[in-house]
Structure to design on (699 residues):
């Protein structure tokens, strides 16, 4: 253990003293989060611009409200909304979670009856993952519902006093709307551009930190210092553990700095589920360091490790929406096969304050991939740190 | 009593035989010079002794322990000074020694004392807090040595430790080798600078194509080529008759003539020098310069392999 401790200390000192460490691992991610978060915030704000029709899922659980719900499918609405029907609420929520649709609308059972009697009657709106698309959908559907609310209220007013009161409130645009906005987990929120890129850049730069482990191994081979370490009474497994743990700790420190800085300076809300946040960081670090060891097993040249790792990180970050949230269905689907996707999804759902089950599902997939990478790196580790 | 013993050791790289059934014994307290041209198998042999490479066949023992069966124990008894300067740019001299000292299991006061001793030994005490980037080539070589001796090993292996350094640093290193030996360490010193090996070694092994082609003290080895003493005579007016008469002299082995320069290979050149001068004078050949070249390890290597050591 003492030998491993010496190697970990050596690794941490190497990183701390490297000139590029601060710039590459701390300053760059914070700068990129700031630049991307501000420059691309237009995609996250409501502005007067061309918007592709939003994929809206609709479930009508009240037969009497069919006609009313059909207003969402009119030609006028088609400019904004592309509506797809679902048989029940669960399937609609599943499709929303899987990204098949961007927004959900449910007309609940007895809606028309309740509305007519003046009882509480609301449509349920389910925002998706993209803040700006949610706002557009809410705006369009909200406008329609304001009209429906007014007509409904006026009609109700002819029936009983309570309904008349509701009609008055609806006409004034004050409280008492029939529309209720909710997230799939009933507690969710949107994310800002800064929050989105904070999650994405955190993942991207944690991957870069992993690369440092691979570079360190190959550097030691190139400078022959690895021979020198092995000339002492040191086993290859100790070198491997020292490299992984040293660089893993450095990456962990990097994650902590990014999270604390973006939280206090940029106002990114990472949520209050610290165990989940810790797990997401830990699994991302394990995956990235393992990936670095795998790459280092196949080359003895630092430049090759760097080139492979940068290419891998860039491609995975792009496919997981790290540079732009709208990359097309095919690439988005391809992105689900990347490590970055599941890592960033874990962080984003923590920011979104999604339900525990949703976060845990992402963390489970992330954990499985990290475990797989770790196993492969353990198998190839001896080759990676071999000096022969 | 032997400290290092190799028995029929073989190492292959693919189909190339790098070390070919090498058997060798190195005694305690020796400075053993391992000579050979580049690619002869010196570094491979050393790496196998240190446990950095596994032999394909044969057995290697250090201090009575098998390298294959007890690699960590063997490693703790060895300090290796690699051919390349294997240092970290981000560590100071003292941090290098602390790092490697810890890897050899040293801690606390003992570690600090060994660090101070090693730095003083290589003359870097005044540069203990400097990084290699500010060092000259010779200083880097000395730090390279200090890293290998910080744990005071029984066996110190120096693989071409003087490559590319100034004469002053070279002398310092050679004197350090002698001093380490005086303090009780056994040294294996590899080089293709035969004059260095001649200067410090008590015994020499010459290796070529992975095989040991000569082994013994310098005196024993040079006896094999004593007949190859050479008189180099620069002449004016050299005639064929004079050359023929010199060739006929009983002590002369061989004569080579290049323009006016005559190279005469003979035994006991000092004894027959007068004879040579007499023959040349008789043929009215004037002598511009004359020197007597005694055989050395280079000559021996050339005789054994037909190649120069530095080829």
């Amino acid at each position: 253990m003492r030998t491993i401790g010496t190697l970990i200390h050596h690794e941490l000192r190497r990183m701390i003293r490297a000139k590029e460490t601060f710039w590459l691992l701390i300053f760059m991610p914070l700068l990129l989060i700031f630049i991307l978060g501000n420059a691309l915030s237009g995609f996250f704000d409501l502005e007067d611009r061309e918007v592709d029709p939003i994929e809206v899922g609709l479930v009508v659980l009240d037969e009497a409200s069919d006609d009313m719900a059909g207003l969402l499918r009119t030609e006028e609405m088609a400019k904004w909304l592309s509506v797809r029907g679902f048989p029940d609420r669960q399937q609609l929520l599943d499709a929303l979670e899987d990204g098949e649709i961007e927004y959900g609308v449910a007309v609940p059972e007895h809606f028309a009856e309740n509305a007519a009697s003046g009882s509480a009657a609301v449509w349920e709106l389910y925002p998706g993952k993209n803040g700006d698309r949610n706002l557009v959908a809410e705006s369009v559907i909200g406008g329609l519902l304001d009209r429906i609310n007014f007509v409904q209220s006026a009609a109700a007013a002819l029936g009983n006093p309570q309904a008349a009161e509701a009609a008055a409130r609806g006409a004034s645009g004050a409280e008492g709307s029939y529309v209720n906005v909710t997230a799939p987990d009933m507690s969710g929120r949107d994310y800002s551009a800064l929050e989105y890129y904070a999650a994405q850049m955190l993942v991207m730069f944690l991957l870069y930190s992993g690369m440092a482990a691979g570079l360190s191994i190959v550097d030691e081979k190139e400078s022959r210092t690895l021979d020198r370490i092995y000339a002492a009474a040191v086993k290859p497994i100790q070198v491997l553990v020292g490299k992984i743990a040293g660089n893993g700790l450095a990456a962990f420190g990097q994650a902590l700095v990014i999270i604390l800085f973006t939280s206090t300076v940029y106002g990114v809300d990472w949520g209050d589920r610290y165990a989940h946040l810790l797990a997401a960081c830990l699994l991302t670090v394990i995956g990235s360091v393992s990936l670095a060891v795998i790459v280092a097993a196949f080359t003895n040249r630092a430049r090759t490790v760097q080139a492979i790792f940068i290419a891998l990180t860039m491609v995975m970050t792009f496919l997981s929406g790290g540079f732009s949230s709208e990359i097309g269905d095919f690439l988005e689907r391809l992105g689900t096969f990347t490590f970055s996707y599941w890592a960033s999804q874990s962080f984003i759902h923590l920011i979104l304050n999604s339900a525990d089950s949703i976060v845990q599902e992402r963390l489970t997939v992330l954990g499985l991939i990290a475990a797989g990478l770790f196993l492969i790196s353990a198998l190839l580790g001896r080759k990676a740190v071999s000096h022969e | 009593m032997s400290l290092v013993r190799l028995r029929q050791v073989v190492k292959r790289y693919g189909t190339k035989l790098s070390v070919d059934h090498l058997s060798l014994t190195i005694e305690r307290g020796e400075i053993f010079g391992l000579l050979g041209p580049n690619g002869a198998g010196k570094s491979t042999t050393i790496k196998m002794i240190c446990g950095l490479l596994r032999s394909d066949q044969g057995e290697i023992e250090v201090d009575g322990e098998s390298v294959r069966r007890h690699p960590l124990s063997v490693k703790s008894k060895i300090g290796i000074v690699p051919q390349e300067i294997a240092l970290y740019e981000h560590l100071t001299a003292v941090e290098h020694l602390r790092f490697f000292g810890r890897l050899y299991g040293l801690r606390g006061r003992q570690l600090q004392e060994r660090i101070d001793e090693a730095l003083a030994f290589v003359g870097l005490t005044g540069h203990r807090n400097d990084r290699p980037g500010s060092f000259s080539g010779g200083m880097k070589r000395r730090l390279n040595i200090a890293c290998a001796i910080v744990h005071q090993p029984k066996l110190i292996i120096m693989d071409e430790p003087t490559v590319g350094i100034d004469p002053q640093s070279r002398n310092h290193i050679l004197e350090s080798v002698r001093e380490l030996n005086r303090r009780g360490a056994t040294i294996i010193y590899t080089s293709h600078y035969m004059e260095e090996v001649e200067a410090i070694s008590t015994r020499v092994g010459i290796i070529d194509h992975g095989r040991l082609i000569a082994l013994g003290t310098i005196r024993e080895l040079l006896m094999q080529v004593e007949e190859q003493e050479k008189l180099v005579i620069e002449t004016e007016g050299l005639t064929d008759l004079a050359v023929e008469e010199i060739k006929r002299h009983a002590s002369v082995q061989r004569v080579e003539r290049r323009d006016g320069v005559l190279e005469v290979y003979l035994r006991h050149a000092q004894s027959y020098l007068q004879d040579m001068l007499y023959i040349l004078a008789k043929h009215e050949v004037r002598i511009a310069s004359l020197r007597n070249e005694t055989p050395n390890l280079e000559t021996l290597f050339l005789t054994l392999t037909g190649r120069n050591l530095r080829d």
Q: What stands out?
A: The longest strand of chain B covers residues 2-13. The first helix of chain B runs from residue 42 to 50.
